[in-house]
Amino acid sequence: MDATLLISLTIGASVMLAAAALSGFMSASPAAADQRLEGLTTGVKTGAKPDLSSGILLRPSAINMGGGSIWSRLIPDPERLNTLYEQADVSLPFNAFMSIVGGLCIVGGLAAFLLGLSPILTPFAGVFLAAVPFLWLMKRRKKRIKAFVDAMPQAVELISRALRAGHGLASGLRLVAEEMKGPIADEFNRVFEEQNLGVPIEVSLRNLADRIPTMDVRFFVIAIVIQRSTGGDLAEVLDKIGRLIRQRFELMGHVKALTAEGRLSGIVLLALPPGLLAFL
Question: Which is deepest, 5, 173, 204, 273, by most CB within 10 Å?
């Protein structure tokens, strides 16, 4: 293969992976709706978010934001990476994760050097392999959020039935954690444990909305926050939210069915240029 073509392909692939990783970090950043929700639930302005990770029994952040952490000084925006890591719910320690990233970067550079490639390709090969763990994080985050949202209607309706049976909101959260499985059970169990240890329920729900940044979760959290402030029938509100989520799923299914041909044509057209380049 021509050296110029190989260099172009390597640089292009590295840039695409870096752009994909950057887009994942940007999507993990708090949006305007998240900031408004934070102000609604805590009563403080953005930037004054209380530090709840200092509790002995609460789960600490993946990245230590204190001055003693080397990653807080080396990473340009550790808060976004910490949010992405927490949303993906990775049990691997962050130091081990970054060691894997560094190891893959070194392996990519050494592989380019041993294969006798141009020295220009060495850093791009390292970046190419170093971006793979971050892409895995984003894929895991997307899969976990999808699994949570898919089970959201059942969880909301389960809490509503618990409220109608005379249980409190905390008991409804514990019921979801015990009766359901997957990410939704883990997240609701975390909310229950936080409020059980003394964290205000509004703050615990706000943290849930930060970890699962979807519109359905924001509806759920805002409904509970408003009901606790103004009163009302929370069970009826949760029933309506459950129906709304199911209707949104039905509408999304219709949209996917109607646009399937167009989306497939778009995939084919997007795949033609790189496929033709690889063939040549």
Answer: 173
